[in-house]
Write a structure and sequence with these properties.
The complex is a heterodimer of chains A (about 425) and B (about 425). Chain A has about 425 residues and is an alpha/beta fold. Chain A is built from 13 helices and 19 strands. Classes of the chains: A alpha/beta (about 425), B alpha/beta (about 425).
Chain lengths: ~425, ~425
């Protein structure tokens, strides 16, 4: 039970008789009256335990978008329940207004709506609905928290979506282009067309020219149905925050843009999220449901404070990819972690696959590197340069092993990775 | 959908009672134990204030033993602390006053109008002036055990007893006044005096030790104490409350000057405030758990390293790092291969910007700075060289925010 503001006002009113007729009898009498009134009001309030809460499953929502979460209160009791209702969502579900007034006669149902604007990716949960049933006098209330579990899956925002149109148009430019490298591997015969001035003479198809009076050239298109495997590192190095979001979120963004682009290019995209064990996996998704299944798989992922087991990751990749594929490792370029974990086993990947390592760099470190003016800033600059040199060293070593490295800030990484993919595609290296 | 949905939170009155019991079990148990310990310790602690000559105190300086013996002898011993209670002792009772120096004029006046026999233990001049004017204080002596040497029945029975301490004498002798345990050259001062004043017997006891638990069993102390205190069937043992002296002043608290109605209204207001607290403290439902991700700033390692450099005054290392980074950038900008030596890079950079090659060499490859100011200057000088280079030759390679490695440079330059 609980009391209301009106009960406090009633208690305040007790000052008047106490002032007019000072003494214990007045004071005690007033308080006896107060307790009686509140007690009777609580007894007369409709029981909130007679209420059933129904909650329908909610669709997923992208981070930063609004969603309405409805729930239904059904009063199975006989008495009317008036008062306040609070929907108990987690704070990060971003509830706009979590309490509502209700007036629910016995046997009736009401549909209430909570508007949510989640502030974090993942599964946001709701545990209960609290009903405070106020008595007819509005002095006392009965309160019960009814279990009404539910959850809302908040998907990664995919903010790099904006880069997709420009990357797609560049992909189309690749298509049907006269290849400069006829004998190059990885390109596929597309069609024959008439020679126009400027075409490479090496691409003239002499046999077709012989059949016709015109000179005919072969055109090529990028190979399709290549396989792309996105490996998302969810270990401790991905937990570090850049700006307001963990590195993992930026890596997801880059992975989503690449997946969208590659699926349009006709490649088959798989996902593997791993640290010491497989955290999420998307395999064999069709073109249409690739992005939905990717975001669904990524949504509940959080970086774990464990060291990545690169031996296990490499083994998992090799077990899944029997034919040559593009393997994109989304992992931060942390010198120590890469040197001890990835470098010793990377040759097992590069020997079979085209490997690209995409790392989220921290703009704050670059800002530190330009610090000047006082000793503190210069020492900071030296520390940042040291980190930069370490990264450069590890990058050089990775490149010697045949790994392509893309290292950019969270904003730049998705388009840069997409560019790298397009470059590989154009070069027929997939 | 609603068919299978149960109303309520799935609890019954019994299960709620059980849950409440589970939740309150430990707080209640702890509270009960604390209460029990408090009560037991209060009961087990001997009563009284622990003051000297307090009839309720079992300390060595207390007087519980004599009070208990008197009770066994059928004397009604009453411990009083207020002067109003003490002055209520009527004729046929004995009023013993310990620590009379704690009495103010008001309390003395109250005692003066009482008709009970008085026993004053170690009284001072003010007390004597008001209650036994013919006795004056004459000196002080170390306590000693001496013969009574007087006709008083109590003293004769007791015989040798522990006396002296404060010494008194009579300013004027009356037939009723007796001096026992005399001392001094003339034998006219002593520590056990009996006189009559305002129609009652007044005993002035200069040595309180005879009543204490510690000395009661020695010599004739017990007999002297019992005879002195047990003469009447009722004994009021007045242990003055020091607080009463302060409170005896006029009660002039500002609250007392307020009208009663206002005071009671204030009480009602306080209660209303309590109710308001109750109202506001009730949350609308329990808190919902939020699993928070770990917050590790990505640049934390670098900041930590910077602080370590600073603390260790690692100017040499910091300068070397800054120079290496600058050299690599310059080499990349000039399109030099990775195997170019630093000396060559410095020379080529000086040539490119058209500056003095020695100066550029000193900046890029000179000795390590010796203090922080030199390090700051070095950083600025390195920036200056790089800026000049940028102004001289626009960067040929694609912009790269990080310090580019020679390998990366090779990659972007076919």
């Amino acid at each position: 039970m609980t009391i209301t503001g009106r009960a406090v006002l009633l208690a305040l009113l007790g000052m008047v008789p106490a002032a007019l007729e000072p003494g214990w009898p007045t004071l005690l009498g007033w308080w006896a009256l107060w307790i009686l009134a509140v007690g009777v009001d609580v007894l007369l309030a409709g029981s909130p335990r007679g209420i059933a809460v129904e909650r329908a499953p909610l669709p997923s929502v992208r981070l930063g978008e609004l969603i309405e979460a409805p729930y239904v209160l059904a009063n199975h009791g006989r008495r009317r329940v008036r008062g306040l209702v609070r929907d108990g969502w987690q704070p990060s579900a971003g509830v706009r207004a979590d309490r509502a007034r209700i007036d629910l006669p016995g046997g009736q149902r009401r549909r209430l709506v909570t508007t949510l604007c989640p502030t974090r990716r993942g599964d946001r949960r709701v545990e209960h609905v609290t009903v405070r049933s106020v008595g007819p006098l509005g002095l006392g209330a009965r309160q019960v928290s009814l279990p009404a579990a539910g959850q809302l899956r908040v998907l990664p925002p995919f903010t790099s979506r904006k880069h997709l149109p420009s990357k797609l148009s560049r992909l189309r430019e690749l298509d049907g282009r006269t290849s400069l490298r006829v004998r190059g591997q990885g390109t596929e015969f597309d069609s024959l067309r008439d020679y126009v001035i400027g075409d490479d003479v090496r691409s003239i198809d002499w046999r077709a020219t012989a059949r016709r009076s015109q000179v005919v050239v072969r055109t090529w298109r990028p190979e399709r149905d290549r396989r792309v495997l996105l490996v998302l590192d969810t270990s401790r190095t991905s937990a570090a925050r850049i700006g307001d979001a963990p590195r993992l979120d930026a890596a997801m963004d880059a992975a989503l843009l690449l997946a969208a682009l590659a699926s349009r290019a006709g490649d088959r995209v798989d996902l593997l999220a791993m640290d010491r064990r497989v955290r999420a996996r998307v395999e064999g998704a069709s073109r249409t449901d690739l992005l939905p299944s990717l975001v669904e798989a990524m949504a509940p992922l959080e970086a774990d404070l464990v060291e990545a087991d690169w031996t296990a990751i490499v083994s998992a990749v090799r077990a899944r990819m029997t034919q040559r594929a593009l393997v994109v490792l989304l992992t931060p370029l942390e010198a120590a972690a890469i040197e001890e974990g990835l470098l010793p086993v990377i040759h097992r990947l590069t020997s079979h696959h085209q490997v690209v390592l995409a790392s989220v760099a921290d703009p704050a470190v670059h800002a530190m590197a330009t610090g000047r003016g006082d000793a503190y800033a210069v020492y900071g600059a030296a520390a940042a340069e040291r980190a930069g040199l370490d990264r450069a060293g590890i990058t050089a070593e990775l490149m010697r092993s045949g790994v392509d490295v893309v290292d950019a800030g969270p904003e730049d990484l998705p388009p840069r990775l997409a560019d790298r993919y397009l470059a590989l595609k154009a070069a027929g290296k997939l | 959908m609603s068919v299978g949905t149960a109303a309520g939170d799935g609890t019954t009155t019994a299960s709620r009672a059980r849950a409440r019991w589970r939740r309150w079990k430990w707080p209640l148990t702890v509270t009960a134990i604390v209460l029990l310990v408090t009560v037991v310790s209060v009961l087990a602690t001997p009563g009284g204030t622990g003051r000297r000559l307090d009839p309720a105190s079992p300390n060595r300086a207390g007087a519980r033993a004599v009070a208990e013996i008197l009770r066994e002898q059928g004397v009604d011993v009453r411990r009083v602390v207020r002067s109003s209670e003490a002055s209520s002792a009527g004729a046929g009772a004995t009023l013993v006053v310990v620590d009379p120096y704690l009495l103010g004029p008001d309390q003395l006046n109250r005692l003066a109008v009482s008709s009970a026999d008085l026993v004053l233990v170690e009284p001072g001049p003010e007390v004597l002036a008001r209650l036994a004017p013919e006795v004056i204080i004459s000196g002080q002596a170390g306590s000693d055990v001496v013969e009574p040497r007087c006709d008083l029945a109590a003293a004769r029975t007791a015989g040798r007893a522990r006396v002296r301490g404060l010494l008194y004498r009579f300013s004027s002798t009356t037939p009723d006044s007796t001096l026992c345990y005399p001392t001094g050259d003339r034998g006219d001062e002593g520590s056990y005096l009996v006189t009559r004043n305002a129609g009652r017997r007044v005993v002035v006891l200069g040595q309180g030790d005879v009543l204490t638990n510690q000395h009661l069993a020695e010599d004739g102390n017990a007999a002297l104490a019992l005879h002195t205190l047990g003469a009447a069937p009722v004994l009021h043992w007045y242990v003055p409350d020091p607080m009463e002296l302060g409170a005896s002043a006029e009660p002039t608290s500002p609250l007392d000057l307020l009208p009663a109605g206002l005071r009671w209204a204030a009480v009602a207001l306080c209660l209303a405030v309590l109710v308001c607290l109750l109202w506001r403290s009730r949350r609308l439902g329990p808190l919902v758990r939020e699993p928070l991700p770990v917050v590790v700033r990505s640049a934390e390692t670098q900041q930590g390293r910077a602080r370590l450099y600073r603390r260790a005054k690692a100017r040499g290392r910091a300068a070397a790092t800054l120079r290496t980074a600058a050299l690599r950038r310059i080499a990349a900008r000039l399109g030099l291969s990775a195997d170019t030596t630093p000396d060559q890079v410095a020379a080529l950079a000086a040539h490119a910007v058209g500056a003095d090659s020695v100066a550029v060499h000193t900046v890029l490859l000179g000795p390590a700075p010796t203090d922080d100011a030199a390090l700051v200057r070095l950083a600025d000088d390195l920036d200056a060289v790089e800026q000049k280079l940028t102004a001289q030759a626009p960067r040929p390679a694609a912009a790269r925010p990080a310090a580019p490695s020679p390998a990366a440079t090779r990659e972007v330059r076919p």
